[in-house]
Specification:
- The protein contains nine helices and 13 strands.
- It is α+β, with helices and mostly antiparallel strands.
- The strands form two sheets. Strands 7-8-9-10-6-11-13-12 form an eight-stranded antiparallel beta sheet, covered by helices on one side. It has a five-stranded antiparallel beta sheet with strand order 1-2-3-4-5.
- The relative contact order is 0.12.
Length: 295
C-alpha cells in the first residue's frame, strides 16, 4: 500500500520512523516560531514568503548528516557567527539569485557541506556548488518535505562531494534509471511522498529504491537494503539495463551471491566492502565543471 502524508506540512510516518532510527532529530534551540523568523529575515534585509515560513515549520532545526543543522534560522545562526562552523572565506554563503527569475532570491537552508542547499521563495529546493569552479545551482527537490522524504529513504545520504566513511547498510548506486525494473523484480510499491518532480521512489520490506535526476549532481538509481541478497537482486536488474554501478556494504558479499553478477572491481575499506562495475562517478559535478570550463 502506498503511504500518503496526512498533513501537507508533515513528513510521512515512514520518514519520521527512518529519521528517528538514524538519530536525526529536531533541536528546539535551532528553530523559531514564524513571527521571530520573519523578524530575523527583515533584520538581515532578506525576503520572506509563506513557503519559507512553512518550510521552517516543517523541518527547521533538524540535525542534518553528516553534521550541522537544517533550516533558515539555522543558516542565519551560522552566518551571524552564533554557531561555529568550518568555512572557506573565499566563498559566499548568503542569498543567491533564483535561476528562474533574477529578481527573486534563494535563501540558504544548509551550508555545512557541498552541495549546499538553498530554498526558493516558492518553496523549491536547490543544490548549489562552487568547488574548484564557477558557482552553479540546480533544481533538486519540489520542497523541503520532498528532500527529507528522500533523505530518510536513503539512510541520510543522497549525494556529497565527500562520501560518508561508512554506510549503515548495503547500498547500490547505479547510473541507470532502473527503479521501475528493480521495483517490478523485488515487488516494491511506489512511494508518493518521495515521488515528485524528476524523482521516483519505491518501498518494500527492508528495501528502498530512489531514482534521481539532478543536473550536475546525480543521475541514476540508489537502493538501500537490510540484506545483501536484496542489494544483489537490485544490482542484477540495474546492470541488465546498462550503465555503471557500485555496491557498498558493511559486510562482504557472499561468494555465491557475487557469482550471479559480472566480475566487479573490488575495494576493501576500513568500514566497508566496495564492488564497482564500470567507472562509477562519486559526484557528477566533475563533468559539469569541465563543461563550464569548455574542456
Amino acid at each position: 500500500m502506498v503511504e500518503q502524508t496526512g498533513n501537507s506540512n508533515e513528513l510521512s510516518a515512514l520518514a519520521r520512523e527512518l529519521l528517528e532510527r538514524l538519530d536525526l532529530r529536531r533541536l528546539a534551540e535551532w528553530t523559531v516560531p514564524r513571527d521571530d523568523l520573519q523578524r530575523e529575515l527583515s533584520a538581515m534585509g532578506w525576503p520572506c514568503s509563506e513557503a519559507v515560513v512553512r518550510a521552517e515549520e516543517a523541518v527547521g532545526g533538524f540535525s542534518h548528516p553528516p553534521n550541522g543543522v537544517f533550516g533558515v534560522h539555522a543558516s542565519l545562526r551560522y552566518l551571524r557567527g552564533d554557531a561555529p562552523w568550518l568555512r572557506d572565506d573565499l566563498q559566499s554563503y548568503g542569498l543567491r539569485a533564483d535561476p528562474r527569475d533574477a529578481s527573486s532570491w534563494l535563501l540558504p537552508v544548509w551550508l555545512v557541506h557541498d552541495p549546499r542547499l538553498w530554498l526558493a521563495l516558492d518553496g523549491r529546493v536547490y543544490y548549489g556548488s562552487h568547488i574548484d569552479g564557477p558557482a552553479y545551482l540546480a533544481l533538486a527537490f519540489e520542497d523541503v518535505r520532498h528532500y527529507w522524504e528522500v533523505l530518510a529513504l536513503l539512510d541520510g545520504f543522497v549525494v556529497a562531494f565527500m562520501r560518508p566513511l561508512a554506510m549503515p547498510r548495503p547500498r547500490l548506486e547505479t547510473s541507470s534509471l532502473a527503479g521501475e525494473a528493480i521495483a517490478r523484480e523485488l515487488g516494491l510499491a511506489s512511494f508518493a511522498p518521495a515521488s515528485r518532480g524528476a524523482t521516483r521512489a519505491w518501498i518494500g520490506p527492508g528495501l528502498h529504491a530512489v531514482e534521481l535526476d539532478i543536473p550536475g549532481f546525480k543521475r541514476g538509481t540508489d537502493v538501500v537494503s537490510d540484506t545483501t541478497e536484496g542489494i544483489v537482486l537490485a544490482a542484477t536488474q540495474a546492470l541488465d539495463g546498462g550503465g555503471t554501478a557500485r555496491i557498498t556494504s558493511p559486510e562482504a558479499l557472499d561468494a555465491d551471491l557475487l557469482a550471479t553478477l559480472p566480475a566487479p572491481t573490488r575495494e576493501e575499506l576500513m568500514t566497508s566492502h566496495v564492488y564497482i562495475w564500470g567507472k562509477h562517478a562519486d559526484y557528477e559535478d566533475d563533468r559539469y565543471r569541465r563543461r563550464h570550463r569548455g574542456s
